[in-house]
Each structure stands twice: as structure tokens, then as C-alpha cells.
Amino acid sequence: MTKLFKFAFPLVASLVWIGLVSGGNDNALEAQMSTLKQECKEMIKGTRYEGSKITYFTAGSSKQTKSIEVYTFLLDEYKFAISAKKCTAALTVKIYDAPAANKERVLIKEFKKAQGKNLKFSTKELNDAYVAKIPDADRLRNIHIEYAIGSGKGTKEGIVLVYGIEP
Predict the structure, then answer these.
(1) What's the angle, vertex CA 96, arms to CA 95 and CA 102, rounded to 5?
(2) Which residues contact 29 (CB under 8 A, 6 or more apart)?
(3) Within the chain, what is the greatest distance between any pair of CA atoms?
(4) Is the whole model's pTM more than 0.90, yes or no?
(5) Alpha-carbon torsion angle 36, 42, 43, 46, nearest 10
(6) Of 52, 60, 61, 76, the residue nearest 145 (C-alpha)
(7) What is the CATH number of domain 11-165?
(8) Exposure of 56 by Cβ count < 10 A (0-12 exposed, 13-18 middle, 19+ buried)?
């Protein structure tokens, strides 16, 4: 019994310690994302909160793209806030009218060098820009937000999106 204990105890203790140490970073990142989410909610103050999306990624040796679709089918005006404050890798945020699979999609708005910053925009701005590019276009029913993330340090990071409807 003591031989088993001498062998198993260090192994179990090591696994528990690794779990605590590695989980601590995720918990710290979750707390930071929660804080940034509240910051974004403040940026769209005066709207009825509709939802949020946190996009996690590990900025590694190669570039990557993450996409989100947000439905704006109501006739109401939406306000959006994005926080990339916890993003150290080069970041470009692009907003399209259709998903990446659609070869005829239209780039509506682009934010370059967005890492470490907060961004704010509305469906009014997006619809005005969309109609300027396609005069006979109807109002946007959904938007596709694409995060083009450059290479980085290999750390886990996140981008927060919050949106609400103007009363």
C-alpha cells in the first residue's frame, strides 16, 4: 500500500497542480473578457442590450481569420461595440454583407490596426455605406464580421462584440 501511495501521490499531485496552473490563465482571461464586455455595454449605453459574442483565439506563427454573423432583420437600428484591447496580434476588422463562401460579397466597412482598441459603429452607418456601394441594395438583414488576425506570441487572447437596439 505504501509503495502504491509513494508512486500515485506525486503523480496525482502533479496532475492537480498542472490543472490549477493551466486553468488559472483561462480564468484570468475570462475575467478580462467579462470586464471588456461591460466596457462595450457602456459604449452602446442607451440601447436595449441584445447580445454579445466573445471570440477566443491563440495568436500563433500563422495568420488566421475568425468570422461572426449577426442578424439585423428587425427594422430597428443596432449599435455595435467591439473591444480588441486583449488582442496583441495585428488585427483588421472587416464587415461584409455575406459570408466568405459568397464570392460576390461586399466589404462594407473596415477597421485596420484595431488591436488594443475599442470600436463602435451602427447599422445606420453600415446601411449608408452599403447603399453607396450598391445603389439599388435593400437594407442589410445580417452582417458578417471577419477578424483577420496576424501572427503573435502564441498566447490565448479574445475579442468582444456587444450589440443592442436603439429604442
Answers:
(1) 150
(2) 56, 86, 156, 157, 158
(3) 81
(4) no
(5) 150
(6) 52
(7) 2.60.120.680
(8) middle
Strand ranges of the sheet holding 64-71, from the earlier edge strand across to the other edge: 64-71, 142-149, 91-96, 107-111
Domain ranges of the chain: 11-165
pLDDT tens profile 116-151: 999 999 999 999 999 999 999 888 989 999 999 998
Q: How far lies 167's CA from each of 50, 76, 79, in Å?
A: 12, 8, 11
pLDDT tens, position by position, 49-99: 999 999 999 988 899 999 999 998 777 899 999 999 999 999 999 999 999
Query: What size, in residues, is the chain?
Result: 167
